[in-house]
Amino acid sequence: MNRCVRGSFDVSEIDTSNGLRYYGWRKKPHSVISGLGNADTVDTVSKSRPFSSLSLVTILLLSLMVGMVTVPTVSANNETKAGIVVGTETWSGTHTLTGNVTVAEGAKLVINAGTTVNVPAGKYLQIRGAICAGDAACGATQGSTSSPVRFLWGTPADSTAYGWCYSPGGQVPLYNQDAACGGGMIVRDTIDEALTSLNFVHFEKAYGIPIYSANAQKWLFGALIFDGASMDANGLSFTDINTSNIIAVNAASPTITNSAFTLGVDEQSYKAASIQAYGAGLGILSTMQVADSTFTGDTEAQCGNQGGGFSVVYTEDSYIRLDRLDISDNAYGVFMRGTSGWLTNSTVDTLCNAIDTNSFKQTGDIQHMLYIDDNEITTGEGAGITAYDGARVSATGNTISGASSGSGFGIRSSYVEIYNNDIGPIEGYK
What we know:
- It is a single chain.
- The protein is mostly beta strands.
- The strands form 5 sheets. It has an 18-stranded parallel beta sheet that branches. Strands 2, 5, 8, 13, 16, 17, 20, 23, 25, 27, 30, 35 and 38 form a 13-stranded mixed beta sheet that branches.
- The longest helix is centred in the first third of the chain and has 15 residues, at about 55-65.
- Residues about 1-55 have low confidence and may be disordered.
């Protein structure tokens, strides 16, 4: 039987580097046997004389015999509803949580395809060990579009009550009063990457977990947070998420494929881009990657500061590779600030600016370029590609059209290389 230990977060003592505080538990100190090397002395712990040489030989033989016995791995099924998963545990069918769950370092949570996990409003899953959801390669049954793992968050019993995100007296004050705030999953940098995978996993009605970003100098909220974690995630989908679908911080370098993203729906100023990345990627050779995925947003939003529009992808101070994306039905497309890497082979159809870039990413003396290549870009009013305030961009083989109030390219105080782009028809400024 797996052992489950209950734990908690103390909002007043949130770790400002990680946003959430994790508590560990110590084992009771064990006795130490002394005096084995001298037959004339007395053991200072037991007050008895040391073992004889015959006793030592007997113990050695017994130890060898015990070593030949195979001890089965301890595992549990649908056991932990709140607290800490220790060892290996498998969830299947319908599993209903009653509180927060942490998968401890060295532990593994397996969730089989087709499993529905019901989570109370404002509760979270924190992964410090390993999670294998819907992926046969790491031990779960294989997920698919018709048989996903589903995480469903409930509604607060009292929507007027303050949730645990309200912490005005914390070291970095947090003022979010929403009763549902805090719901989601956070994957830490201590995971066992070889045993961790999310495959066809659906997140629904998760408000988002708060995490403080030193890069952004503010609190961020996301349904699925990669906090320095590098892992594979395939077939993700999101519905009715208040804040961001995904946040990547602290050099997180996940590879995300075949997923469907939506813009946040919060009505109390916490709405945000589908994906936010601050300080993501370990380097230009180890980037955060998003590929073969779709993004839809808010068709009611307009352009400009008062238009209420958001980009579906926002990256800052990051190394990133975006490939074969389909972005539509939104005011803005992608905004990359201080970011280097690639945006390629994608279709971006927006009302306002499709691809915005600003400044660049630097490693030592190396000033990295951002490559925007082979994209189909259509805008209603805004520019196809902008490069402002020190951006370093190379744009090749793009097709840009629309821009009734903008231009194909908008460039200010930046270094831009433009090769073999097809620009037009443009109704605004070419």
